[in-house]
């Protein structure tokens, strides 16, 4: 069985190599941006791809679930940093579809795919990704992210404030102690001031 606290020396080295390259590249991006050189993504692509290659070794090794999940997040960040959402989508689909990565890793890959579909304006598929998490996953952080993500899509991309409120209310009700609950409550407060009386969402007026 996999563990969440132990990894091989090789896996640790791959993760550290990826993290070092990632941080060095981000520092260079920041320096260039602040000096007025702008941010041409292709300039840094080979550097980010070097970091991606190291992080992918950590995911493939999969001896440490926690480290593999962290590596997956960094891989996503690197792909986004070079505007390679299609490459990220292909990789995440391969992880989500591989039975080796059942459970937490699969759910993590699925939730990282949702923003890709939002970027492509395919909001229905993005919502489906979140619904899969809510149906199959047991990990609180991912469940919270899925509910908040649904609320954001409904409110800011689909202009469906009633469905947004339902998602935010479910988050607040089920996970009141989670840090994201406060942000969800802020969204609800704003919707209440703008559209609702302070009553149950079901009693809210229909929107034209």
Features:
single chain, 208 residues, mainly alpha, 9 helices, disordered C terminus
In total, the number of strands is 0
Distinct helical segment count? 9
Helix and strand pattern: HHHHHHHHH
User: Portion of residues in helices?
Assistant: over 70%
* Cα-to-Cα separation, first versus last residue: 54 Å
Amount of beta strand: under 5%
- Indicate the low-confidence ranges by residue numbers: 1-6, 196-208
Specify Rg, calculated over alpha carbons.
19 Å
Coarse structural class: mainly alpha
Largest sheet: none
Summarize model confidence as the mean pLDDT.
Answer: 89
Shape: globular
Q: How is this fold's topology laid out?
A:
Blueprint: H1 9-34, H2 45-61, H3 65-81, H4 85-96, H5 104-119, H6 123-136, H7 140-157, H8 161-174, H9 179-194
Description:
Helix 1 (9-34) packs parallel to helix 3 (65-81) and helix 2 packs antiparallel against helix 3 (65-81). This protein has helices at residues 9-34, 45-61, 65-81, 85-96, 104-119, 123-136, 140-157, 161-174, 179-194. Residues 1-6 and 196-208 have low confidence and may be disordered. It is built from nine helices and no strands. It is an all-alpha fold and 208 residues long.
């Amino acid at each position: 069985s996999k563990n969440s606290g132990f990894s091989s020396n090789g896996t640790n080295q791959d993760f550290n190599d990826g993290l070092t390259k990632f941080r060095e590249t981000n520092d260079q991006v920041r320096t260039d941006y602040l000096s007025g050189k702008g941010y041409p993504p292709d300039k840094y692509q080979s550097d980010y791809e070097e970091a991606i290659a190291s992080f992918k070794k950590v995911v493939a090794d999969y001896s440490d679930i926690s480290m593999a999940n962290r590596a997956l997040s960094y891989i996503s960040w690197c792909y986004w940093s070079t505007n390679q959402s299609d490459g990220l989508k292909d990789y995440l689909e391969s992880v989500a579809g591989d039975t080796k990565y059942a459970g937490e890793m699969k759910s993590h890959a699925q939730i990282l795919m949702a923003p890709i579909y939002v970027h492509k304006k395919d909001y229905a598929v993005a919502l489906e990704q979140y619904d899969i998490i809510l149906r199959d996953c047991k990990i609180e952080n991912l469940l919270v992210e899925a509910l908040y993500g649904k609320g954001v899509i409904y409110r800011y991309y689909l202009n469906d404030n009633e469905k947004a409120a339902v998602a935010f209310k479910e988050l607040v009700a089920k996970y009141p102690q989670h840090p994201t609950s406060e942000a969800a409550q802020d969204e609800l407060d704003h919707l209440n001031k703008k559209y609702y009386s302070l009553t149950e969402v079901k009693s809210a007026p229909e929107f034209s």
